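A note from the maintainers: we've had questions about how concatenated examples are separated. There is no special marker in the raw files; a new sequence line simply starts the next protein. For clarity in this README we add a label.
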Amino acid sequence: MADSQPLFIDISQLRIGMHIHLDLGWMDHPFPMNSFTLRSQEQIDIVRSLGLERVRFSPDKSDPEVLLQHIAEITAKQQPEQSEVEVDSPEIVARRLRRDLLLSQRASLQVCERQFADASRSYRQALETVHSQPSVSREQSENLIRGFLAEIMGEHEACIRLLSENAGEKTSLHSINVTVISLLLGKASGLIGQDLLDVGMGALLHDLGKIELPNRLRWSDEQFTASERSIYQEHVAHGVELGQKMGLSKGALLVIGQHHELADGKGYPQRITEERMSLPSRIVALVNLYDNLCNPGNPGLAITPHEALAQIFAQRKSQFHAATLSQFVHMMGVYPPGSVVQLSDERFALVVSVNSCRPLRPRIVIHDTQIPRDEALVIDLEDEPDIGIRRSLKPLQLPKNAFDYLSPRKRMCYFFERAREAPSPGESP
C-alpha cells in the first residue's frame, strides 16, 4: 500500500468533507482533535481565523465526492493551452518529487519541534505555580497531558520521533521524554481513561520534588556521599507532598511515589516489590531509567538508545515487571530512535523514527556521499525490503565523514509523530 502522507492545501480551498490536520498546539484552536473532517461552514470559518496560510489535507480520509470536485477544480486551473503543453523530463520530475518530499519532511519535523517547545513552556509554567497556585498548576499539567492523549489516541498510529538537540528547553527534556514514551507504553499496555491520565500526570511530574533540592543535588551522581544520596532520594517524598497540595489523583501520586521502586525490592524509598507497584508506576519507573541512561546528568556517561535497551534487558531484567519490559522492548524496537546503525549494504545510518505499533522497520537517514547532508531524505525501511540493519554502533565508531553527516545526538529528545497508514488486511507492508 502506498504511503498516504497528507498534502498541503491553501486555506482558501477548504471544502466541507475534507479531512485536515492542524499543525498547532492543542490549546491554540477550539477543536477537540488536531485531525478531523470538516463538517460545516462554521468549522471552515474557524480554521480560516487561526492565521494559517495552508493546512495538511488527507485525500484518503476525505469524502470521495469533495475529493473529486477538488481535483477537477485544480485540473481546470492548471490546464494550459494545447500549444503550451510541455512534457517534463524524468530528471525534472524526479527533482520536483524530491523537493516536495524534503519540504514535507522538514515541515513535519518543525511541527514536532514546535509542539515539543510548547510542551516545555507549559511544563515550566506548571512548575512555577506549584507553590503559589497548586490547583492552577494541576490544571495546566492536565491540559498538557490531555493534549498528548488527544494526539496518540486518535485514528492514526503514532511514531516516536527523534528531534534536534536544540528543541525545547534542556531543563524540561527529561520530563517530556519520559511522558511521551510512558504514554505510548501505557497505550500499548492496554491502559485507557483515568489510568492513562495517571501515567501521563505521574510521568510529567515524577521529578516534581527536585525543585525542593539544591541545584547540585538534582541529578543522581555516583560521587554522592551517603548524606548527599539521602538528601537526593528525598525528592520522592517532596514530590508526593507537592502533588497532594496540587490535588493530584491517587494514581498519579502513586507514580510519583514509586518511580524509583524496583520489581526486586531494591529501589527506594520504600523498597517495595512489583506486586505493590501500580501498573502506571511500573511503566514510568522503566522509562525513567531508560531516559536517564540515554540522558544522564553527566553527558559523558551517556550510552546509545540501543545500548540502554540492551543493558536493561540483559543486566537489569529482574528490576522490572516482565510483561511491562517485554512490551517496552517490542514498542521501541531493537534500534530505538537515536541509534547509529550499519546497514546490510555496509552504509551507515541514524534511526530517526519508530512506529510504536510496528517497530521492526524504522525510518532512517542514510549517509550518502552523493547527496548533500541538508537534502538527505528520511527513508522508511518498510518500503525497502532489500535493506536491513546489520548492527548498532557507538557514534565514535563512525568514520569522520559519516559522523559529521549524520550528527548523532548527544542528548536524546523525543516527541510524537503521525505514522504512515498501516497496510490493509491482506496487503503486504
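[label: protein 2]
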Amino acid sequence: MLRYFYTVLYILAAPLLCVRWVYKSFKPPQYREPLRERFGIVRKEQKESIWFHAVSMGESNAAIAIIKKLLAKDDTLNIIVTTTTPTGARQIQNGLGGKVTHHYSPCDLPGTIKRFLRRTRPKLLVIMETELWPNWLHHLKQQQIPVILANGRLSERSAQKYEKVYSLAEEMMDAFVKVLAVNQLDAERFKRIGLKERKSIVSGNIKFDIDVPSFRDHEYYPEWNNQPVWIAASTHKGEDELILKAHRQVCSRVPNARLIIVPRHPERFEQVARLIEETGFKMACRSKPGSWSPGVHVLLGDTMGEMMKAFNISDITWIGGSFVEIGGHNPIEPAILAKPVLTGPHIFNFNEIFCELIESGGAHMVGDEVELAEVVTGLMQNPSKAVEMGAQASQIIEHNRGALDKTVSVIESYL
C-alpha cells in the first residue's frame, strides 16, 4: 500500500522533476543530462546485460573496481552503468571508457522502469551502497531479475527513517537476493528494516581495495615546491568560509603555508572562487594554467576526477561535509596515500571508518576552524608527526582490504 502512495506522490512531483531535467539538458556538455534517458528511453541491447547503478563519484569508483575485475575474467560481458549525477557519469567514462554503456538513471515510475528493463535486458542489477527505489525493486523482483546491494551502507539516521515506513522498507529488502554490507553494524541496520538473515553478508568496504595510483612529483600543481600544503576536500556551502579563516590563522604562524580547496559540487566552483578572492589570498585555478605561479596562497580545485592527485601533493588532509550536517565524506583515499586525515564533528556517513582511523592515530577530529588551524599548524611545524599519522592511516587501509574479491565472487554466482 505504501508503494502505491509513494508512486502517486512521485507522479504529482514529476512535472517539477521534468523542469529540473529540461534545465539540465541545456547546460554545457560536461553537465548535460539527456532527458529521454530519465524516462527509460535508451538504446536497445542485442543481448542480456549486467546493470550496475551508482549515484555519484564515490559509488562510481567502487563500481569501476568491480567491473574491471569482472571484465578481466570475461571481456565479452555486456555491462550497463547508470549514474544519478554528471559527476558519476564522467567518472565512469574516465574509468571505463568504451568498455561499458552509460545511461543516466531512469526515474522511479512504473512505466519508465518497465521500458528501461525491456530495452536493456538485464539479467542482474548491482546497486552500489544504498540507493533504494521502490518501483525499481518491485518490477525487478516481478520479472525475477536478481538484485544485489554491493558495498551496502546504512547510517543510523537513515535506518530510523526507514523504520517509520517499515512495510515499504521490508518490501524493498525482500527484492534483494544478497546485501553485502560494509560492516556488522550496517548489516544489523539492514536487518532492522526487513532484510532476512540468509540474504546478509558482511563483505567489508570495497573502497579499501582501490589501487594506489602513481603520480609525477607535484603533478597537480607543479608551481609549489617545498612549501607545506594542506587540502580541504569535498567542501560544502558554509565550510569554505571557515576553511579560509583557518588558513589565515595557519599563515600567521607558517607564512609559506599553502591551501587547496576542492568544492564537492562543480556548480559551486565560481562561488568559491569569488569567496577566495574576497579574502585577499592570491588564488589560482587548477583548470587555468595561466593563473599558476609559485606565490599563489590558495589553489581552487575546479576540475573533476583529480582528487587523488590533489591529495598526493598535500601534506595534511581535511575531509569536508563534516563542519556542516552532511555527515562527512570518504577518508579512505587520503589514508591510502598515507596522509594524515582531519575531520569536523559530523561524520555519521563514515562513522566506523573515521572511528577506526581516529583510534589508530591516523585521523584527528576538530570541533571548529580555530582548532583546525591549531592542528594544521602543529603538523606543519612537526612534519614527522604528520608522517607518523599518515603511516597509521595507511596501516588501517591495509588491514581492511579484501572486500573486492568477496563482492566479485558473489556477483559471479548470479551470472
